[in-house]
Amino acid sequence: xxxxxxxxxxxxxxxxxxxxxxxxxxxxxxxxxxxxxxxxxxxxxxxxxxxxxxxxxxxxxxxxxxxxxxxxxxxxxxxxxxxxxxxxxxxxxxxxxxxxxxxxxxxxxxxxxxxxxxxxxxxxxxxxxxxxxxxxxxxxxxxxxxxxxxxxxxxxxxxxxxxxxxxxxxxxxxxxxxxxxxxxxxxxxxxxxxxxxxxxxxxxxxxxxxxxxxxxxxxxxxxxxxxxxxxxxxxxxxxxxxxxxxxxxxxxxxxxxxxxxxxxxxxxxxxxxxxxxxxxxxxxxxxxxxxxxxxxxxxxxxxxxxxxxxxxxxxxxxxxxxxxxxxxxxxxxxxxxxxxxxxxxxxxxxxxxxxxxxxxxxxxxxxx
Length: 368
Ligand SMILES: Nc1ncnc2c1ncn2[C@@H]1O[C@H](COP(=O)(O)OP(=O)(O)OP(=O)(O)O)[C@@H](O)[C@H]1O
Ligand SMILES: [Mg+2]
Hints:
Mean pLDDT: 80
Strand content: 5-15%
Strand order of the largest sheet: 3-4-2-5-1-6-7-8
Oligomer: single chain
Order of helices and strands: HHHHEHEHHHEEHEHEHHEHHEHHH
Structural class: alpha/beta
Bound molecules: adenosine-5'-triphosphate, magnesium ion
Helix content: 40-55%
């Protein structure tokens, strides 16, 4: 089986891509496989974004279903399979891998969509790698594939996670070396919607192989809600960055995700120490909190009751960096970049005071 080709490719691009596959196998050099119109489609995201909105609106319904279902992930998947609304399709024989992995698997998760998970996965993985930790960031959001855009490597995607799961490419062919920092690799999601290829067994095998390759951290960028990719990523998590916006719908959905992490993860099912869950509050706007338009950090803390990894302020620089394909952590002039850097330090065990959670003084406004 050969990996699926892009519909918009011309025959000359196709030839070029074929040649480049060979190059990628040996040198993993940059190739121009994705056309600009593809990128526009991904960024504009008409039909796909609509389907994301539909998915977001289903989170509450899906979460409730998940709470009712049994504790075994296999049973949870089987139950979802019966449900016509659910995108989760899994084989009854899909047995997860329950070995201990040497790599630390950190899932960036949320119940609600569009809260900043991919932005966070890109910055946290870049931050860990720039501190010298061999890191891989894996896009579990099959069908949407945003991570490679934010990491600025979309043109280098030749093989993806689904190709590896389907046996169409070896892992080292699909791993893309990051161009911004050393020690960082990206495993992109497929742009097509073949989510059926995601299985507990298949994903576990890939994670095990990454772990055996010597990666210290495997950062999983989860899709929103509890579709297959999200449930599988949650299952394998050693730690979770629960990404939440300071609004009630986001909080409520994060609380449900915490329930799944504590009840249905590999650690929970195998009676191991529970998943290390940390709260990352994103798009925090001090002015709006002061005006009581947004929930304050204190209130969120008392509701979720998990340690705070960081508070990322609302910043126009985030979208600007994403459009430039640069993780915002690399922009240490903006507050969001600094806040992500602090979060990385905390993830590595350093005590750092929270910044950007109170109104700036007159002098801070003038001198930054
Ligand atoms: N701190 C921030 N300040 C301003 N905008 C932000 C911030 N964090 C994220 N955003 C913006 O929010 C939008 C959603 O971000 P992102 O794609 O990271 O969310 P997501 O949770 O991965 O979404 P999905 O659930 O669709 O995968 C993007 O336009 C991003 O630029
Ligand atoms: Mg995302």
